C-alpha cells in the first residue's frame, strides 16, 4: 500500500519549487507516485524553465496542457493515480516535516477509511499558524473540516472525475460532502500532513469562495438562504478577527 500525490500547477514556479523540495524526503519510500498536472505554464526565463524541467524529471507522471480550471486538472490527476490513497499538494503547498508516511500507512492498512483528515500548518503572507486540527464531521455544515491538502482519499471511493468542474473554488468542499453524505468512513489524525499555502484562491478571494460554499451547502444540506447568509457573515467576522495570527485557528 502507498499513496499518489497530485500536484496541480499553473505559472507558480517558486511555489512548485517549494512543493518539489518538500517531497524529496519521500524518495526512499517505495511505491509513492507523484503526479503533476500543469496547465500549460509559460516560463518567463531560464530559471523558471529549469524548475519546470526538473519537476518533469522528478515526477512519475507529468502532464502539461490547457485545462478549464483547477478541478479539471485535479480530475486528470485522480484518473492517473495508481496507488490506494491520494493526497493533493498543489504548487506552494508543502509536505509537513512531521508527516510520517510509514506510520500513516499502517493505520490505513488496518482500517481502510474512505477519507482521513489530518492536522496542518498554514503559511500566510505575514505569519504562520501551526497545528490546526481537524474538526468533527458534525461541523461539516460550517465548512471544510480541515485543509483539503491535509486529507487523504481512498482511490476506490473517488471513481472517475470526482470533482465538479463547474465549481471554481469550493469543489473540494463539494466532494467531501458528497462522500460524507453517502456513508463514507472517516478517520481523523493529529499527525501533521502539510503546510498549506495560505495565499491560495480560497483564502485570498473570500467573497467568491463563500458564495460557492453557499451553493454547495444548499446542494447537500438544503440550507436556506437566510442560514447560508448567516454562516457566511460569521465566516467573514471570524476571518477578520483571524488576521491576528494567534486567533486564526478560530476561523479554520
What labels describe this entry?
252 residues, alpha/beta, Spore Coat Polysaccharide Biosynthesis Protein SpsA, Chain A, nine-stranded mixed beta sheet, single chain
Describe this structure in words.
By secondary structure, the chain is of the alpha/beta class. It has one domain: Spore Coat Polysaccharide Biosynthesis Protein SpsA, Chain A. 40% of the residues lie in helices and 21% in strands. The chain has helices at 13-22, 46-58, 70-80, 101-111, 155-158, 171-180, 201-204, 206-221, 225-241, 248-251; strands at residues 3-9, 33-38, 61-64, 85-88, 94-95, 115-123, 128-132, 151-154, 186-197. Strands 1, 2, 3, 4, 5, 6, 7, 8 and 9 form a nine-stranded mixed beta sheet that branches. The longest helix has 17 residues, at 225-241. The protein is globular, with a radius of gyration of 17 Å.
Radius of gyration: 17 Å
Kindly identify the CATH topology: Spore Coat Polysaccharide Biosynthesis Protein SpsA, Chain A
Question: What is the CATH class?
Answer: Alpha Beta
What is the helical fraction, as a range of percent?
A: 25-40%
- Largest sheet composition: 9 strands, mixed
Poorly predicted runs: none
Class by alpha and beta content: alpha/beta
Write the element-wise H/E pattern from the N-terminal end onward: EHEHEHEEHEEEHHEHHHH
**Could you tell me the number of beta strands?**
9
Task: Estimate the global geometry from the Cα principal axes.
Answer: globular
Amino acid at each position: 500500500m502507498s499513496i499518489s500525490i497530485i500536484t496541480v500547477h499553473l505559472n507558480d514556479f517558486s511555489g512548485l519549487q517549494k512543493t518539489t523540495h518538500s517531497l524529496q524526503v519521500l524518495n526512499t519510500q517505495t511505491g509513492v507516485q507523484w503526479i503533476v498536472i500543469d496547465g500549460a505554464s509559460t516560463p518567463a526565463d531560464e530559471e523558471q524553465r529549469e524548475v519546470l524541467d526538473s519537476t518533469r524529471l522528478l515526477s512519475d507522471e507529468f502532464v502539461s496542457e490547457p485545462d478549464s480550471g483547477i478541478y479539471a486538472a485535479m480530475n486528470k490527476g485522480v484518473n492517473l493515480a495508481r496507488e490506494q490513497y491520494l493526497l493533493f499538494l498543489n504548487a506552494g503547498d508543502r509536505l509537513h516535516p512531521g508527516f510520517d508516511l510509514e506510520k500513516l500507512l499502517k493505520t490505513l492498512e488496518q482500517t481502510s477509511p474512505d477519507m482521513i483528515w489530518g492536522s496542518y500548518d498554514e503559511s500566510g503572507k505575514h505569519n504562520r499558524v501551526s497545528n490546526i486540527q481537524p474538526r468533527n464531521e458534525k461541523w461539516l455544515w460550517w465548512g471544510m473540516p480541515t485543509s483539503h491538502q491535509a486529507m487523504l482519499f481512498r482511490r476506490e471511493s473517488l471513481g472517475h472525475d470526482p470533482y465538479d468542474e463547474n465549481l471554481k473554488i469550493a469543489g473540494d468542499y463539494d466532494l467531501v460532502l458528497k462522500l460524507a453524505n453517502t456513508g463514507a468512513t472517516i478517520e481523523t489524525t493529529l499527525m501533521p500532513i502539510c503546510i498549506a499555502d495560505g495565499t491560495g484562491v480560497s483564502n485570498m478571494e473570500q467573497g467568491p469562495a463563500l458564495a460557492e460554499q453557499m451553493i454547495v451547502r444548499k446542494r447537500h444540506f438544503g440550507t436556506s438562504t437566510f442560514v447560508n447568509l448567516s454562516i457566511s457573515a460569521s465566516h467573514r467576522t471570524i476571518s477578520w478577527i483571524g488576521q491576528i495570527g494567534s486567533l486564526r485557528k478560530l476561523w479554520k
